[in-house]
Design a protein that fits this description.
Elements (H helix, E strand, L loop, with lengths): L21 H4 L27 E2 L7 E13 L4 E12 L17 E5 L4 E8 L12 E5 L3 E6 L8 E11 L4 E5 L11 E5 L18 E11 L3 E4 L2 E8 L4 E13 L5 E4 L1 E9 L2 E8 L4 H8 L2 H12 L8 E6 L5 E2 L4 E5 L6 H20 L8 E2 L6 H18 L2 H19 L10 E2 L9 H17 L1 H15 L3 E2 L1 H12 L4 H7 L7 E9 L4 E8 L8 E8 L5 E8 L10 E6 L7 E4 L8 E3 L4 H10 L3 H13 L10 H7 L2 H13 L3 H11 L5 H11 L3 H4 L1 H13 L6 H8 L10 H12 L3 H13 L6 H15 L5 H6 L7 H19 L3 H14 L5 H11 L5 H9 L23 H32 L34 E4 L8 E4 L5 H18 L3 E4 L7 H4 L6 E4 L8 H4 L7 E7 L20 E7 L5 E9 L27 E3 L4 E3 L2 E6 L17 H12 L4 H17 L2 E9 L7 H12 L5 E7 L8 H12 L4 E4 L7 H15 L2 E6 ...
Parallel strand pairs: 2-11, 17-18, 18-20, 21-23, 24-30, 35-38, 35-39, 40-41, 41-42, 42-43, 43-44, 44-45, 45-46, 46-47
Antiparallel strand pairs: 1-22, 2-3, 3-8, 4-7, 5-8, 6-7, 9-10, 10-15, 11-14, 12-15, 13-14, 16-17, 19-20, 24-25, 25-28, 26-27, 26-29, 31-32, 33-34, 35-36, 36-37, 39-48, 48-49, 49-50
Helix pairs in contact: 2-4, 3-4, 4-5, 5-6, 5-7, 6-7, 7-8, 8-9, 11-12, 13-14, 13-15, 14-15, 14-16, 15-18, 16-18, 18-20, 19-20, 20-22, 21-22, 21-24, 22-25, 24-25, 24-26, 25-26, 26-27, 33-34, 35-36, 36-37, 41-42, 41-44, 42-44
């Protein structure tokens, strides 16, 4: 079960408790027993009463193993008549029948059964084939238990059956009837069960503990017009009975404990969602909720099922997955195959702005119980963390995989804070056997507290070992009960670690580390020191705490501070010493990755705090720094922490809150803001609350509006009273589930006005109707009690006609109204709220009446907190506070002391700065010594040049002059290269080695160069890179450039590629009829382009030839001076931004059975281990030559790099890049196909590949167990080597699962605009246009390019659909309309990802046009550009590369068509290619050989 405060309503702030959780986690005030027990048996002060005793699982000698329930329901009369057949089994593990003593243990069974009318108990047949006479039995019922005794004891493994017939009317708990009445008119008629933790016994005789599990058969008879639901699958068609009823049957074959048994009958609305692997998924709720609201609330369920199955590596075990909403559940409950929800989770469009993420978390929480709680059941309640902590932690894992890294870390931070807050009342072990009722165990210790301990185990073991252990745990204990040590042993088996000490400290002992940190810097040694101490007593924890120091340039120095519990002196601090040199750290980050559960006291200098608040890498660091800054009133309004600002409560923080409220447009942020401000009384806030209430509710959301009303009431203005009273009866101010109305009620309690108090009295009596009436009734009773203590109420009442007696009269009226509500209300949560309100008012005269009402209305497990509160009425505090007296806050630290501290820090800082400056001056005088080649290593950074098109590249880096001279061009352009890159020397020489290997050009470092500008020659260190131009050293392909150039006569050019203005042409001559001559020079560049003539709109076929014709007249081996363009279309060539050459053509060694992405990855990984360098080279060469013959002149080729293939693929492609450089420019992307975080070796291999000349780095987040960290690692390497980034991303059809926000965030944070590309992005095809447009604008802002891969995406996606199969291709054209640079590319050829292909980009452009249903000339021209100029822009970077123009590289591909549109429509033939003025291939035009006698064509 998950109790979620965010799903609850206002009204219990006075007690610090939310309404629904009040009965489970109240701070207890009774003393612990004097007897001193330890560990799980130790009674915890504040958690248990004096009467609490250890609790244990029941004996298993005899236990029911099957129940067949025959239930007959009359909903209007709230009556159940039932007959239940039980099959009981004796444990087969008993040695023999002779070993069984004739005792009650083996012949007696007690069923928990509270306040039932037992009509009959009799023996029965075990099943239809059992005709043996069962031993006689007797029974006794005492109102709490049904005691069954057989005359003869059982034998080991023996089964016997008996039947119990009984009835119950409107039970106290377990089975809830909703019958509309004038007081509770909302919602259609229904009944539903809710059992956790021990509520089934109030309507069903059973062993009401988790260790006892039974299979189930249901036969449920009710009015034929109603819908019936239950655990399991329908086992027979419904039967219509003559009396107008219907009997529905269900069966559940998985053993089920009583708390997970569930059925519901009622007038429900239904929403049918997509099935998952044949498992139906549906949602239900009583009317007037709608199917659209249900789908809006739970529509991500199918994707969650798919994700969860993959996460735990276990197929979803239930025959269906239905979820149902009802007012009678607090939070949600994980009943097997039929999850129940509180109705307050149903959302409309407005509420979804506030709750959709929180409801998603609850949804995945309950679904996680499928495995942790339902499939695997805890043996008893002390092990409840094995289900609830796990379900809460799966919420965190879902957030980690589907939202941003900050969201993931913030979730962990919130969970820790909730646990810490409860620890202020009591601190207990996670495994704890001593409690008043089992419900007490479901507190913040096992929800967030236990979840955090699971998170720590994950950090300790590492991803692979942890999830392997978890999956083994699920596989091993599926269908069984477990204890904590079972989980520990599975983790130990997977990791090889002994976890006994961890479990002793963190699970079986109470508490958590409370850390205090200090920081110092030794300027003489250049060492920073961070000292940590544990301040909690008496436990000292074994801890390793990461400490990061962030330097001014963003570099990080890391250390670990280690605590050992067995230290001789338990107060020994842990110290992290970090050498940072003369560069003082900018700020300190303690536990920056959130590995350890702890609190932290750390207040370094304001400068360090300001740096951490602004640029801390982790949200936890930033939040901590901001809170500390607020304490010293150093505020940054641009990055507010609203709750921290509200806590400060000074003029500056209040002004920030007020200003922020008027401009905040984000609904969740506005909710946080108004909630934070609603507890403060201030004139500026009054105006801000009024402004919010003037806005439409669609803009503010319900919760922000409710808090704004509360804030308005907090101001205590009588003038606002009438507005609040009017709002109370205004249905437009109700809000879904009465959220806004609950806020109005609270506001009336705070305003301190007699009219408001009178309105609350009436509200308690009237119980205002709403969709969920209980919520308003609870809020009303809490508000009535609170109103008597409102500031100013006593004075306002005393000024009336009754004078001094008015306050006492008001109190008496409130007590009577609350007592009446407690005595006559049918709703247990309202009764509970009324009893608490009486406690608040100190109504000792009504204590016994309230006690009786509570006893009658609530189940035993909910009683202890309320009864303890009522008992306190007889023990008043020695000095009770007067009604309405304000609690004085503790004085804060004096401002003067803070100022003194700051002054001391500043003085010390100045001394350190002076020493630093002295050291820097001395170092500058010495200078930097050059290396063996004369180049000062301290002054070199990596030079990044993309001379893709033979263009000299200017690289803007700071202070070291360098010239980059491409081999085919004599011009020199200077650039500057900055400091502090020792690794840059290696990068520079790697680039030189690459040039040597690819072009066989000698490379030297020289002092000067002819034609060098004087300003550059006079630079302080003019080391220049020169590529010698000796023709004798050039390879054959380069020597071809030494001819006299080409003249290509009569070619067409692309629209926009004309070298002259449109006005120079006869408008009567269409663009595609203009012919041009293109002249190239000896250097491989275009010397001139000139208009020559017009031509027909179509290209004439070549003249017919006979079979005796000789070979082609023109030979392109050496290249003639003139080439006949034949009216063909000339353009710079196709560009492929995404081609996996290394794994092309491997179908002969792979199998394709399912055609899924997972299979393709697995099959390729298996084949990849056997790749040799020669094998990759041969296959890649075949594919690349095919691409060249299809007109490709530019390729980004991915080379997979990981421990299986090493660098073999990269080296093969580097060879190929050199060999075929005459025809195609190959850019190599070192690519981590299978992730990095679980294989650190991959990072080292990627780094080496980049050092050896890889041009780009690529990552694949969806194959990595930690996608966010993987993205960080890829970007880190990219920045280290100053290369572009290319991700395979979001390759599925799940619109709610995306790693794109993380990529965008890192691109922006690291300034990588225009240097990131993402491939696939198939989930965009599953999104509505509006969402795609929003994403497109984010991509455009970050200048992230998108590469669509239609062949692969069509083949692999949609495999789980048997009809209406989705295309799965991202809408590139829609993205482009928002300014995103897009491309279409090949991806794979002849492998499991794409088992076909010829590396033809024109064919893929045609394919994309078909898939995207594009047909206009404009659209088809765009498709052409997606495989040519747009792709070239992605590979080469901005600005776009030159086309067919004078001065551009002489790269020309000739197509047999008139223009780009016909090229795509017809998939035009690629005829010939020219690169850098050298002919590279010739496919020839198609010739037909007609018989000579026909005369030809």
């Amino acid at each position: 079960m998950r109790y979620d405060d965010s799903l609850l309503l206002l009204g219990a702030e006075d007690s610090g408790l939310d309404v629904a959780s009040a009965a489970r986690c109240s701070a207890h005030a009774c003393r612990a027993p004097a007897a001193a027990a330890t560990g799980p048996l130790a009674p915890v002060k504040g958690f248990v009463s004096d009467a609490a005793r250890p609790s244990y699982a029941p004996h298993s000698a005899l236990a029911p193993v099957h129940m067949a329930l025959d239930l007959r329901l009359d909903l209007p009369s709230r009556t159940l008549r039932a007959g239940v057949r039980y099959v009981v089994c004796c444990s087969p593990s008993v040695a023999s029948a002779a070993a069984l003593p004739d005792s009650a243990l083996y012949r007696a069974l007690t069923l928990d059964a509270v306040a039932l009318d037992i009509h009959a108990v009799a023996t029965a047949a075990v099943d239809d084939s059992d005709d043996a006479a069962a031993p006689p039995l007797s029974h006794h019922y005492d109102g709490r238990g049904l005691h069954i005794t057989w005359q003869l004891p059982f034998t080991p493994g023996e089964r016997r059956a008996f039947v119990v017939e009984y009835s119950v009317v409107d039970p106290v708990a377990g089975l809830n009837f909703h019958v509309p009445t004038p007081q509770a008119a909302a919602g259609s008629i229904h009944c539903i069960t809710d059992h956790e933790s021990e509520r089934a016994r109030y309507w069903l005789p059973c062993v009401d503990y988790p260790a006892v599990r039974t299979t189930l058969d249901f036969k449920i008879t009710a009015d034929a017009s109603l819908t019936t639901l239950a655990n399991g699958a329908e086992s027979a068609p419904p039967i219509l009975n003559p009396d107008g009823t219907k009997t529905t049957s269900f069966s559940l074959h998985h053993p089920c404990p009583s708390y997970l048994l569930c059925f519901a009958v009622g007038d429900f609305v239904e929403a049918v969602d997509d099935a998952v692997d044949g498992i139906p998924v549906r949602y239900y709720a009583p009317r007037p909720f709608t199917a659209e609201q249900l789908q809006l609330s739970l529509g991500r369920t199918p994707n969650m099922i798919r994700w969860l199955q993959k996460r735990v590596n276990y197929k979803f075990p239930w025959p269906k997955y239905y979820q149902i909403f009802t007012p009678y559940v607090g939070g949600a409950m994980e009943n097997i195959s039929l999850v129940t929800w509180g109705a307050s989770a149903v959302q409309d469009e407005i509420l979804a702005k506030s709750l959709h993420e929180r409801v998603d978390s609850t949804n995945i929480h309950e679904m996680a119980h499928t495995y942790f709680g339902d499939l695997i059941v805890i043996r008893h309640f002390e092990h409840a963390w094995l289900k609830e902590s796990w379900a809460r932690y799966i919420e965190t894992c879902w957030i980690q995989d589907h939202r941003s890294h900050d969201d993931y870390r913030y979730d962990l931070i919130k969970r820790a804070q909730a646990y810490f807050e409860e620890c202020e009342s009591y601190t207990r072990p996670i495994v704890c056997r001593t409690y008043d009722t089992s419900q007490d165990m479901f507190d913040q210790h096992i929800y967030p507290g236990g979840a955090w301990r699971i998170h720590m185990l994950r950090q300790l073991l590492g991803e692979d070992s942890f999830w392997t252990g978890v999956c083994n745990y699920v596989q091993t204990y599926a269908g069984k009960t477990v204890e904590t040590d079972d989980f520990r042993r599975c983790l130990e088996a997977a990791s090889g670690l002994n976890l006994t000490a961890f479990f002793d400290q963190w699970i079986y002992s109470p508490g958590y580390p409370k850390l205090r940190a200090s920081y110092s810097y030794d300027d003489a040694l250049g060492v920073a020191r961070v000292t940590l101490t544990q301040t909690q007593k008496p436990t000292r924890f074994d801890l390793d705490v990461d400490v990061d120091l962030v330097l001014a340039d963003g570099r990080v120095r890391s250390a670990v501070a280690t605590f050992r519990a067995d230290a001789v002196d338990p107060d020994t601090p842990a110290v992290a010493l970090v050498y940072v040199g003369k560069e003082r750290p900018r700020h300190v980050e303690i536990d920056p990755h959130g590995k350890v559960l702890h609190t932290l006291e750390f207040a370094p200098s304001e400068d360090m705090l300001a740096s951490a608040a602004k640029s801390g890498r982790d949200i936890g660091t930033r939040m901590h720094a901001f809170r500390e800054l607020i304490k010293v009133r150093n505020l940054d309004p641009s990055a507010p922490s609203y709750k921290a600002l509200a806590k400060a409560r000074n003029r500056a923080t209040i002004d920030i809150l007020a200003a922020s409220m008027t401009r905040e447009a984000n609904v969740p942020a506005l909710e946080t803001l108004t909630y934070a401000a609603s507890g403060i009384r201030d004139e500026a806030l009054h105006a801000a609350f009024t402004t919010i209430l003037a806005r439409p509710v669609a803009d503010t959301g319900y919760y922000a509006r409710a808090y704004a009303f509360v804030g308005l009431g907090r101001q205590g203005r009588a003038a606002d009273s009438q507005r609040l009273i009017a709002a109370l009866y205004d249905d437009t101010e109700r809000g879904m589930h009465g959220i806004v109305r609950a806020g109005v009620l609270r506001a009336l309690a705070l305003v301190g006005d007699t009219a408001a108090h009178a309105a609350l009295l009436q509200a308690v009596d009237a119980s205002l109707p709403t969709l969920t009436p209980d919520s308003v009734a609870r809020a009303a009773v809490a508000a009535l009690a609170e109103s008597l203590g409102a500031p100013g109420f006593a004075g306002t009442a005393a000024s009336g006609p009754h004078g001094a007696d008015a306050l006492q009269m008001a109190r008496a009226a409130a007590v009577e109204a609350l007592a009446d509500r407690a005595l006559r209300d049918r709703r247990s949560d309202v009764v509970s709220a009324a009893a608490r309100a009486l406690v608040r008012l100190g109504a000792t005269d009504r204590a016994e009446q309230s006690r009786a009402a509570v006893l009658a209305a609530l189940p035993a497990q909910d009683l202890p907190p309320i009864l303890r509160a009522i008992a306190r009425l007889d023990r008043p505090d020695p000095a009770p506070a007067a009604a309405g007296a304000a609690t004085q806050p503790k004085p804060s630290q004096p401002v003067e002391a803070l100022r003194d501290r700051v002054a001391r820090l500043e003085k010390a800082l100045e001394a350190l700065r002076a020493k630093d400056e002295a050291r820097e001056t001395a170092a500058a005088a010495v200078g930097a010594a050059p290396n063996a080649n004369g180049v000062p290593l301290s002054d070199i950074r990596a030079i990044r040049g993309r001379a893709v098109f033979g263009e000299p590249v200017r690289i803007p880096i700071a202070a070291f002059p360098v010239a980059v001279v491409p081999p085919e061009h004599g011009a020199v352009k200077s650039t500057s290269v900055g400091k502090n890159a020792r690794r840059a020397a290696a990068a520079l020489y790697a680039r030189l080695n690459l040039l040597r290997s690819s072009l066989s050009l000698p490379v030297t470092l020289v002092r000067s160069l002819p034609g060098l500008p004087q300003s550059l020659a006079q630079a302080s260190t003019p080391w220049l890179l020169e590529l010698e131009d000796s023709a004798t050293s050039l390879p054959f392909q380069a020597q071809q450039r030494m001819h006299n150039g080409l003249v290509i006569r009569g070619v067409r050019l692309l629209r926009g590629g004309d070298p002259t203005a449109e006005s120079d042409f006869d408008p009567a001559v269409p663009h595609n009829s203009r012919l041009f001559d293109v002249v190239t020079d000896a250097d491989g560049r275009i010397a001139a382009v000139s208009y020559t003539a017009s031509a027909p709109d179509t290209i004439a076929s070549p003249p017919p030839q006979t079979s005796n014709d000789a070979a082609r007249a023109v030979s392109y081996t050496g290249g003639p001076t003139e080439v006949d363009g034949e009216g063909l279309l000339a353009f710079p060539g196709f560009a492929d931004a995404h081609l996996h050459l290394d794994k092309a053509c491997i179908l002969d060694r792979c199998s394709i059975r399912h055609g899924t992405l997972a299979e393709a990855v697995a099959e390729t990984a298996r084949a990849k281990a056997a790749f040799s360098e020669e094998d990759v080279y041969t296959r890649a060469r075949r594919t690349l030559l095919r691409a060249i013959s299809n007109g490709t002149t530019l390729v980004r080729a991915f080379a997979e790099v990981d421990p299986r293939v090493g660098l073999r693929a990269f080296r093969a492609l580097a060879r190929l890049r050199s060999e075929l450089a005459f025809a195609v420019h190959v850019q190599i992307c070192a690519f981590a196909q299978e992730g990095t975080t679980h294989e650190p070796e991959t990072l080292a291999l990627l780094d080496q590949a980049l050092r050896d000349g890889a041009d780009v780095i690529g990552g694949c987040p969806y194959t990595d167990p930690d996608p966010d960290r993987h993205i960080d690692q890829i970007f880190d390497l990219a920045q280290r080597h100053d290369v572009d980034v290319d991700f395979h991303l979001d390759f599925d059809l799940d619109p709610d699962h995306t790693d794109l926000p993380k990529v965008i965030a890192e691109t922006l944070r690291r300034g990588y605009h225009g240097r990131v590309a993402v491939g696939h992005m198939t989930n965009l095809s599953a999104m509505p246009p509006a969402r795609v447009d929003a994403i497109a604008h984010s991509l455009a802002a970050a200048r992230i390019a998108v590469v669509v891969l239609p062949a692969t995406d069509l083949f692999l996606t949609g495999r789980n659909h048997d009809h209406l199969v989705p295309r799965g291709v991202a809408p590139a054209h829609r993205l482009a309309s928002a300014g995103v640079v897009v491309a279409v590319a090949t991806n794979n050829v002849l492998n499991p990802f794409t088992p076909f292909g010829d590396a033809s980009l024109l064919r893929l452009a045609n394919l994309y046009a078909n898939v995207a249903q594009l047909s206009s000339d404009e659209d088809l021209d765009f498709c052409f550009r997606m495989v040519s100029s747009l792709t070239a822009q992605i590979i080469a970077g901005d600005p776009p590369p030159p086309g067919v123009r004078a001065g551009a590289p002489a790269n020309l591909v000739l197509l047999d068509c008139c223009d780009s549109v016909s090229a795509v429509r017809e998939v035009a033939k690629v005829v010939r290619g020219i690169v850098n003025g050298v002919k590279t291939f010739d496919n020839g035009r198609t010739h037909f050989y007609f018989p000579a006698q026909s005369g030809g064509e």
